[in-house]
Structures are given as C-alpha cells and as structure tokens.
Amino acid sequence: MTSKLAIALPEHSAHESSLNIQFLLTGTELMVGDIVDTNSVMLAQSLKDHGAEVTRKVTLGDDFNSLVAEIEHMSRTADVLLINGGLGPTADDLTAEALAAVIGQPLEENAEALIHLSAWCDRRGFNLAGANRKQIVLPKGITIVPNPTGSAVGFSVIHNQCHIICTPGVPIELKQMWQQEILPQLIPYLPKKNKVKTVKIHTFGKGESAIQNLFDQHLADWPQAIEIGYRAASPLVDVKLTTRSEHAESLIPIWLPKIEALLGGHVLKISTVDANTAEALQQPYTLAESLVGLLSKHQQTVSTAESCTGGLIASNITRIAGSSAVFEAGYVTYSNRIKSELLGVKRETLQANGAVSEAVVLEMAKGALAASGSDWTVSVSGIAGPGGGSDEKPVGTVWICWGSCSQLKTQRLVYPTNRLNFQRFIANVGLDLIRREILNIDEMPSYFLKKGK
Fold first, then answer.
1. Residues spanned by CATH 3.90.950.20 within the chain?
2. Taking the alpha carbons of 305, 306, 311, 315 in that order, is the dihedral positive or negative?
3. How confident is the model at residue 4 (pLDDT cuts 50, 70, 90)?
C-alpha cells in the first residue's frame, strides 16, 4: 500500500522555533499501570535527535467523551497531534469513533483499509470476519497511513489547522510507521540550525554511579560543549556524548579516547547517532551481539554448559542473526545425573565438592568442548535462590568456567539478588568472559571485585 500521507503545516509552523508537536496516548491499561508507555519515549527521543521537542503529552483511558474533548482541545494548539492507541478490534478501541465525532464526519468502511486487512489475514490464514472488521470502519475523508506489520492501518486528517495522525499502540508497528511514513514528512519542518550528534559508548560490568564517579575524578575539566549522560539499559550502561555544533563535534576525538582509557575492557562498542540514525529507532545493543560478531570475525565457535542459568546463555546467543555459524551446542545440565551422563562430570567429583564448585564447572567445560568440538566454552553452576543456600555457599553463589581446550579459567562470584536478575546477570557475565578472551583483555572486570570469599 502506497502512503498518501503528506504533511503540509500552516505557514507559521514552518519556522523552527514554533513547531508544536503534541502526543495523546489512549488506553486504560496505560492509566492503571498494566502496560508501561515506551511509545512516547521512543517518539520523543527521535524528535530530540532532530532538534525538536514535544510540547504536551496527555494519557487518557478508554472513555469516549474524554477522548473527544481532549482531541478537540489539543488540535486548537498543536501543529501536529499524534494519537497513539485505540485502533484495535475490540469495543474499548475508540480512537476512530472519537475522531469522527471531533471532525463531524460519519464512520464508514474504508476501501484501502479493507484491502490492507484482507491481505494481512490471507498471509496468516485467518478469516476476515466479526470484530476484525471494526479496524476498517474509519472516519470519512481521512488519509491512510500504511502499517507494514500489523492489522490496523493508521490514518490522518487536518482539523483546526492541526495535522492529526492516528497510530496503533503496538510498539514495533508504531516504530516502523514512524520511521518509514511519518518522520520523513515531518523532517522539513524540524530544526536545521543545530547539528545534533550523539556518540554512544556501550559498556558492561560497571554501574552508572561507578562510571560517573570515575569521570568526576579523572575528567574534571570536561568541556561544557559536550553534553554527557548515562542510560542504564540493563545489563548494559550507555554513556552518551551529545554535541550540538561543529565546534563541539570537533572535541569528540580529543575526549573520547580518554573515556575509552578509563573504561578499558568494559567498553563493548562505540556508535554514532545522528539525524539519519535516530537513537530511538535503533535496536538495543547486547553482549550476545558483541560476542557473535567477534566469533564471526575470527571464524570461531562456542558452546555452553549451563545449570543455574537454565540455557539463558545459549538463548541470548541464538537470538542474534548469524549465530548458527558460530554456535555449536548448548547443554542444560540441571541435575547431577545429567551432568555426569551428558558432560562426563565424575560422580566422585560431585560427591566430594557439590554441584556448585570449581571442580564441577571445570569438568562441565571440558565435557562441552569434547562433545561439541567448539573453540570456546563457558560453564556455570550456582544457587539462584531463593532457597538452597548455606553458610559456605549462600544464595547467589556461582562458579563460572570459561576458555578453550588450551586454557580454562574459573571464578567464584556471589551475586545475591532475586532469581531472575541473578540468571540474567550471570548469563551476561558468561558472554562477557568469552568476549574478553577472544580480545585478549587481561584487565580484571569490575564484577570480579564483588566475587565473595
């Protein structure tokens, strides 16, 4: 479906300082906390990357009268009003009805929306019937905004000299529509004076406050022209350097190496974000992505042998496109019997040391290497909790082994937290340790400092 969306704003709003963009988010689930609003964050960050800001944001539940009143009110002050949500097939999806009431137009079956929804159903083997047809009943006179992923099209209309754009609430659908259909139409009206660019330093192993303290101690003369910020994207922390002029941008080559030197092996990747690669439209960077890239570059393979993480290390790796070329096998050996039968862990080793021990993870790693023939492996065995701990091995204790046939290393960590956070963190530690081996990083990671006794 070809987009007919063409944003033509009133003359007064074409000036950089006066473009008024507002958001209206709909859905009772947002109001009661059942769903966290990530959509407006994505949109606001994307606009910020282009030098623009959202002037007003309102969230409303699924109430027809409230929606009608708010759409009318916001359209009187906004140049662009983006309404997100309420386009689904159920009775509480009220955006089309509310907009029809605001603009004084009847609802009718839209031919373009019918073509889109019919094709969407055909691809999935669904019958277009019943509640689904509600998604094609739209206000008369609107312009369709294609949705390349979902069943509900977006639509737009001009009212009170405001360009109203209605979009679905599903985040991946909104992101694609924003990037492909809506943002390109807005760009001519967005600021051009400031050349906004952000350098993102993706890190793992140091917390936000630890990084800031490090910079406060060693970068006291940091230039004001470079804005520095921190974003915790668990388990990673991103350091963001934002520049808004050519002068500020020219300082990055001077100061970026200083940050790299301070953070050392905790740096995974450095990426640059500008108006063409808006930060909010990028997928979050992960440790698994870093590791798969390195293994591919070196034409090497990895295997995993997991107990307490239940296969999470392997799962993280196989989420990455291209992992089939570098991932040999994942062994989830939760019971002692399976540790022995699949990986060759000796029963006497288990009896003498217990499953959570250096000796056991060493034998797990050796067994994984022998069975898979991979270049690298990582094995873990620990106590995820909430029960099962002791004075000698408290909850959060884990032994990790990593390396290759030529050299295997071990480390004991104690990471007392809830079960899910424990598994997520230890899985990422396993990925990070293999990454460090491939890169020959000898520096001790910060998380070893909390290794326990």
1. 287-450
2. negative
3. low
pLDDT in the model for residue 284: 74
Which CATH number applies to 197-281? 3.30.70.2860
What is the Cα–Cα distance from 247 to 267, expressed in whole angstroms?
Answer: 26
Q: How far apart are CA 40 and CA 30, in angstroms?
A: 12
The Cα 265–Cα 160 span in angstroms is 55
- Cβ atoms of residues 240 and 272 within 8 Å: no
pLDDT tens per residue across span 71-102: 999 999 999 999 999 998 998 999 999 999 99
Among 188, 148, 164, which Cα is nearest to 3's?
148
Query: pTM here?
Result: 0.73
| H or E element, residue 365 | helix 358-372
CATH number of 287-450: 3.90.950.20
Which residue reads 């022998």 in tokens? 370
How far is residue 276's CA from residue 269's CA, in Å, rounded to a whole number? 19
Span 271-281, average pLDDT? 63
Mapped onto helix, strand or coil, the DSSP state of residue 286 is coil
d(CA 68, CA 138): 15
Instruction: Report the CATH number of the 11-189 domain.
Output: 3.40.980.10
Predicted pLDDT at 196:
76
Which distant-in-sequence residues (6+ apart) come within 8 Å of 149 by Cβ? 170, 172, 173, 176
